[in-house]
Amino acid sequence: MASRYLRLSGRAVSAAVLGVSAILASPPAMGSFSAAVIDQKPIPSSFALRRLSPRVLTLFGGPGSVKVHSVVVASRRGLVVVDANISPRLAEEMKAIAARELGRSDFRYVILTHADGDHAWGGAAFPGAEIIAQRGARERLKAVAADPAKALAEELAYSCERIAEWRRSLAALPAGASDAATYRTIIAREEALVRDYETGFSVVPPTIGFDDRLTLDLGDLTAELVFFGAAHSGDDILVYFPEEKLLLTGDLGFDFSLGSPREDAPQPDRVFDVPRWLRALDTVLSDPHGLEYVISAHRREIGSGKDLARRRAYLGASWDRVLEARAKGETLESVLERSGLDAFFPEAMAWPLTWSGMPTDEERRARHRSLLRLFWREAGRAARLD
User: Fold this and answer.
1) What pTM was estimated for this model as a whole?
2) Which residues does 350 contact at the CB level (< 8 Å), separation at least 6?
3) What average pLDDT does the segment 82-110 reach?
4) Fewer Cβ neighbours under 10 Å: the N or C end of the chain?
C-alpha cells in the first residue's frame, strides 16, 4: 500500500519543552516473579526494559499517555513484536532497544492485540514484517490507513488537552515539589507525540487477518493467537507463547470490567459473548506448559497464571449466577441484592482495577454490580436469540 502522510497545522501546543527528555519511571514491579527476572533496569529512553528470559524483552512506557506494554520475543525464525505502540518514532526506539539487547534485528512478525492506535500505529517502523491481527482489527486499521486525517486529528486534540491539564497541575505545585520533575517529563513526552501527529506518519494495516485462532510456528517457539471476542474492543485477542509460559492480554485487564465493558459503557450495540470469553481463557489456562507471566498492556505489574485462573473463576461464577437467576425467574434487582461482592467472591475485594490505581472498596463493589448488569443484559440477549 502506498504511504499516506498527513500534515496538520495550527493546533500545536507551545514548543517550550521544559528540558527533561529522560524517563524517570522506575521499572515496573515484578510481584511474585522478581526471582525469575535476569535483568531489570531503567533505560534513558521512553521505555523501561525488563528481560523475562534470554528470549523475551518487555518494554513499558513511562509516565504519560504512551504506556503500553510491548514485548519482543526472539525465535529461530525471527523477532516477534507484540503491539507496535502509537507512532513509528516510538516503534523505532523499541526496535533499537531490542536490537541492542538481543543482538539481532530480523523483525519477522508484528502481532497486534487489537486495532487501537496506541497498540497499532507504529507498524510503519517494521517494513518487511508481517503484521497480524484479528480480522476485525485488520478492517479497522484499513479504514484508518485509507484516511488517517480524522484519527490523527483526534489524537492531536487529546494530547493538547492533556498537556494543558498537566501544565496547570505543574503550575499549582509548591516550589521544590518532588512531583515537578515527573510532570515535566510527562509534558515533554506528550509534546514529542504532538510533533509526531503534526508531521504525520503512515498507518499500516495488518497483512494477515484471522477469525478465531491462528498458530505461528516460529521454529523453536510457538505463538498461539486466540480471538477473545468483543470486550475492550471488538477485536481483542490473547497472545500466548507456551514455551515461555507467557500470555499477553492487550487491554483485557481481567478485573471486574475486563478493561472497559460495563453496563454503562458507550457501546450499547456491541454483543459481549461471555461464553466465548470463558472458552478463550480456558484455552490458555489448560495448556500443559502452564502460565508464569500474564502481561496486561497498561498495567505495570506482571501477573501470574494463578491470578488469571482466579479471575476466570470470578467471571465464570458471576455468569453462572446470572444464568441461574434467569432460569428461576428472579429479577436483576434480586441478583444485585443477593450477590454482593463481599460475600459472593470476597477475595476480589483485594484486587486492583485496570483503570484505577488505588481503588476503594466501594469502587470494587460498583464494578461488580456493573458486571452483573452487563451479564444480565447479555444473558437476556442470548435467550432471545435461542
Assistant:
1) 0.84
2) none
3) 95
4) C
